[in-house]
Amino acid sequence: MDSANPVDGEQPVDPAPRPIRRTFTAQYRNRILDEYLAAPHGEKGAALRRGGLYQSQMRDWARAREAAGSTRNNRKSLPASGPEMADYVAMQLNTRPRKTLGVETPAETLDELLMSADELTGRT
Fold first, then answer.
1. Is 121 within the bounds of a domain?
2. Which DSSP state fits 25?
3. d(CA 11, CA 43)
4. Among 11, 44, 105, 106, which residue's beta carbon has the most beta carbons within 10 A?
5. 124 lies in a domain?
6. Is 63 part of a structural domain of the chain?
7. Into how many domains does the chain fold?
8. Annotated region Disordered: where (predicted)?
């Protein structure tokens, strides 16, 4: 029986089975993305049609690859731990524009004001 109401324990037949979502391996995405980026302006659509893909997928894949590459590069440049890490952090903090331009933080300004007030009142 092919009705929507099953009788006597029959399983209902789904007239439109749920579509299966495609998945792509990283190797496939990189190969297609390289092909797409290397294609001349008028032939990018052909590369997409061959794989049944969309331009938005290429944009998303390119962003993901760029983000993964920048994260990987940042991780390699950081020292693991210990004195090297402390030196790295100190260098990053000390070379910020505020430090190199001589601009004081609000905490430094407050500290100077409090010290000058202490000097005026005779406290040390």
1. no
2. -
3. 49
4. 44
5. no
6. yes
7. 1
8. 1-22, 64-83
The Cα 114–Cα 15 span in angstroms is 80
Domain range for 36 is 26-77
User: What is the rounded CA–CA span in Å between residue 64 and residue 59?
Assistant: 9
- Written as six digits, the tokens of 79 are 């020292």
Residue with tokens 């260098």: 91
Paired tokens of 70: 């920048």
Token pair in block for residue 78: 């950081």
Residue 71 included in any domain: yes
The percent of residues above 70 in pLDDT, for the chain, comes to 74
Residue type, 53: L
What is the pLDDT of the chain when averaged over all its residues? 77
What lies within 8 Å, CB to CB, of 46 at 6+ separation is: 39
Question: Is the whole model's pTM more than 0.90, yes or no?
Answer: no
